[in-house]
Amino acid sequence: xxxxxxxxxxxxxxxxxxxxxxxxxxxxxxxxxxxxxxxxxxxxxxxxxxxxxxxxxxxxxxxxxxxxxxxxxxxxxxxxxxxxxxxxxxxxxxxxxxxxxxxxxxxxxxxxxxxxxxxxxxxxxxxxxxxxxxxxxxxxxxxxxxxxxxxxxxxxxxxxxxxxxxxxxxxxxxxxxxxxxxxxxxxxxxxxxxxxxxxxxxxxxxxxxxxxxxxxxxxxxxxxxxxxxxxxxxxxxxxxxxxxxxxxxxxxxxxxxxxxxxxxxxxxxxxxxxxxxxxxxxxxxxxxxxxxxxxxxxxxxxxxxxxxxxxxxxxxxxxxxxxxxxxxxxxxxxxxxxxxxxxxxxxxxxxxxxxxxxxxxxxxxxxxxxxxxxxxxxxxxxxxxxxxxxxxxxxxxxxxxxxxxxxxxxxxxxxxxxxxxxxxxxxxxxxxxxxxxxxxxxxxxxxxxxxxxxxxxxxxxxxxxxxxxxx
Length: 471
Fold this sequence. Notes:
By secondary structure, the protein is α/β, with parallel strands linked by helices. It has helices spanning 18-24, 30-33, 37-41, 55-61, 67-77, 100-112, 131-139, 159-172, 188-201, 217-226, 248-255, 266-286, 299-303, 307-319, 326-339, 349-362, 372-378, 391-398, 416-423, 432-438, 440-455, and strands at 10-13, 47-52, 82-87, 117-121, 144-150, 176-181, 206-210, 231-234. 46% of the residues lie in helices and 9% in strands. It has an eight-stranded parallel barrel, surrounded by six helices.
């Protein structure tokens, strides 16, 4: 039997971003990360994901931290390892499309502050929504633009669909491709087919990202690696499994002594795991880590609903005192998704579909109330949907308004100059305007808090009308 050629699989570590985003709602503070960075830097990861996604919002809103300062501290500690972030295309890290000038400036500042690899995705897989971001990344020295395709199931999502997208991504000038399986829907033998097809259609490196939510992720990685995937995303064991990724140590040991051997040292990985274990235990004790998030939820395969979306649905129904409607809403999700053109369910499309499904069930009549975001999808303002939207619903939502077919960001005028003026005296660094652009109210609250820490005066307590402050 011919010897299989050696092809070491690379490991992208998620513990500083997606792992804690998935399990503890992105609440790991920077101070918890810094003491272990030196040891993580010695492991030999392909990259460490440490920024983007929900970290930006969570830093400002809940942790009272400057996300840019976090990035600078991480960059100072990681001397050898590439740092990676997750970027929502034209939505950056927010929930609406931004003007090209904001997207380009955000990319530039991300790279200046320490990011090496920008993983860019769009909730519709509309590559037009990624163009300005990829172009901006290509302008930056040492920056890698990785385009991620949001993986989902449906009649239109054939191997041919994924192969054509991969070819188009290559033509865009991206440096690599990622299959982003946010709900753990990619089954092991489907992974063999998908990765084989992608490797046939593109010369770009292919990375696979999945979640353990449905219980199949480790097997999926095994088959994907055998099929030729170049990089897999894993999480250190204390924050692995459940709604997070397969455990780094387990995958490293799985491939040891095979042609896919990662070459990573288990001893070094154990040191990193030993560091995070007490923090995981504390999160369990404090209730920050819900044990439910650590189990297998087979409903993800039945309803194609990512773990984060499931928890959102639960909290929305609790607010409406309609917890008993949970399964009814789950069954409505695929119907709404179909009406909206079968988009992949990932931020923000997952929230849009989920919220509309809740309204459809709770109001007792489908589309009695249509959310602004649902209307925007039907109007083409989030981009092109994979399948046609429901024409009757579109007419009901839009009336005589014509849906757009061009790139949505073409309708957005440059924003940076206006944002700079609005921010005014609160600006302490160039990056502040970007924090404000993404989360105006949350960022402003943080800036006031930051000022209060320096002056000992809380601006929220000031009598601005009379220029007085309580003493």
